[in-house]
Amino acid sequence: MKPYLVGIAGPSASGKSTVSRMLTERYPSAARINLDDFFFSKDTFPLHNSWSNWELPQNLDFSKLHSALSDLLEGRTVTVPDYSKKEGKAVGEKIVRPKDLIIAEGFYLFHDRKIRDLFNLKIFLDLPEDIQMKRRLGRQPDLDPRYFTEVIAPFFKKHGLPARKHADCIINASRDIDKVAEDIMSLLKERLS
Fold first, then answer.
1. 3-state helix, strand, coil in the chain (%, to 5)
2. Can you state the angle between helices 177-192 and 16-26, rounded to 10 degrees?
3. Alpha-carbon span 168 to 58, nearest angstrom
4. In whole angstroms, what separates CA 190 from the centre of its chain?
5. What CA–CA distance (Å, rounded) separates 181 from 102?
6. How far apart are CA 185 and CA 23, in angstroms?
7. How far apart are CA 137 and CA 142, in angstroms?
8. Of 2, 16, 31, 134, which cross-links 99 as Cys (Cβ 3.0–4.6 Å)?
9. What is the pLDDT along the chain (193 residues), one digit of tens a residue?
């Protein structure tokens, strides 16, 4: 049987990584791919008001992601970059083996049509900007709040939010993360049974 590919997209701090980790713990036959591992080196990012702008689709190697997901769907083991945001570059590689369930997550995951078309199920975690900012500053206290208001929020609105319309399911991510994970698990139970 071909693997079942689930994509989880949404804005910064919507819980994509946390939910994906919870799902891979819940489903031992699941593999996880993180879009963040496909960033190019930070030194290639354009500046926006003196900040390196992480919020542009062009900073991501969608071609390499497409290749990795396609290979996994064909039952082939893949090697993907292991990206360190702190260092702003890949610091190694990770082996991802094909499993019955593959969960991919990332803020611009549905941006590229060729990648979008690979998914069996596309989930968008919806979160208002004020909660995004509160959560993001909670986990990254050294973040300049202006970077959020001038870069993260407007660029996601321009490049990430339009892909929301391609989701099969939109989930309110302002709730407790366990509830969000339960909703996704219910969806998977329906789809996989």
1. 45, 25, 30
2. 50
3. 25
4. 23
5. 16
6. 7
7. 8
8. 31
9. 789 999 999 999 999 999 999 999 999 899 999 999 999 999 999 999 999 999 999 999 999 999 999 999 999 999 999 999 999 999 999 999 999 999 999 999 999 999 999 999 999 999 999 999 999 999 999 999 999 999 999 999 999 999 999 999 999 999 999 999 999 999 999 998 8
Alpha-carbon dihedral of residues 167, 154, 17, 72, nearest 10 degrees?
A: 50
Compute the Cα dihedral for 168, 170, 173, 179 and give only its sign. Answer: negative
Which two structure tokens, joined as six digits, stand for 89?
């570059």
For tokens 């993907």, what's the residue?
80
Domains of the chain and CATH, by start: 4-192 (3.40.50.300)
Nearest-5° angle of CA 59, CA 63, CA 66? 120
pTM of the model: 0.96
Residue 55 tokens read as: 């919020």
- The first and second tokens of residue 96, run together, are 């991802």
Taking alpha carbons only, the member of 116, 98, 92 closest to residue 168 is: 116
Torsion of CA 171, 22, 162, 190, to 10 degrees: -50
